[in-house]
Write a structure and sequence with these properties.
five-stranded mixed β-sheet; 233 residues; 7% helix; seven-stranded antiparallel β-sheet; mainly beta; 29% strand
Amino acid sequence: MRRTGFTVVVGIVAIILTGCTTAQPSPRPPTASHTQPPSASAPIPTPTPTPTPTPSLTSNRAALVISATDVTLLDESGEVEARLKLKGEDPTPFAEAINTAAGAAGVAATTPGGPEGAKFTSTFTWDTLKISTFFSPDECDAGCRGTFVYVTAPSVGTLPIHTTSGIFVGETVDDAKERGAQPTSDLPLASDPEDPSLINSTTEATRVVILDADQGVITHIRAGDGYSSLGGM
């Protein structure tokens, strides 16, 4: 069953402390005969240090992984739970899997029209992630369907998002370049090519993940059917 919509719960707790102090005469200090020395047998309490939690040996590896050709949903053990090819597949089942894994329900919508004369556009939208697919079911087979992914944050719900090489939104461009991102002759910054051996080709396009940056920081990740470079990396 598809879950749609978002539920936002905002809690606002206001605590207003008001105090009124009435001047009182200062108490007379006790005389020596009234002062009781501490008992020699009474132990002095020692503060108990708070233990530092031990990191789990089995870290959570669940993530949404973006490549030039597909998007993969990994479970907590790092195993493939679902995969969406960016060409020729209906993303509906994959979007439903994201809803469950991220603990956040996306909004699904289908509207008439689309790029290159497509008859329909279906979108699945979360706060930080959008999956769009364009298709004409009565004119061509599933191979005509193209899907695009647009990421604006390092996670969707509780699910981290990064490229195959580990690049995420919010990372510096310098760090992304250390993971293999490079400018091309026709793109400011790209990564995770479909076929690295073709990335320097000027006659055959190579599919890539596009990275948008502003002031030295990755702001968006884009992948989809049709995103390619003619080389220069």
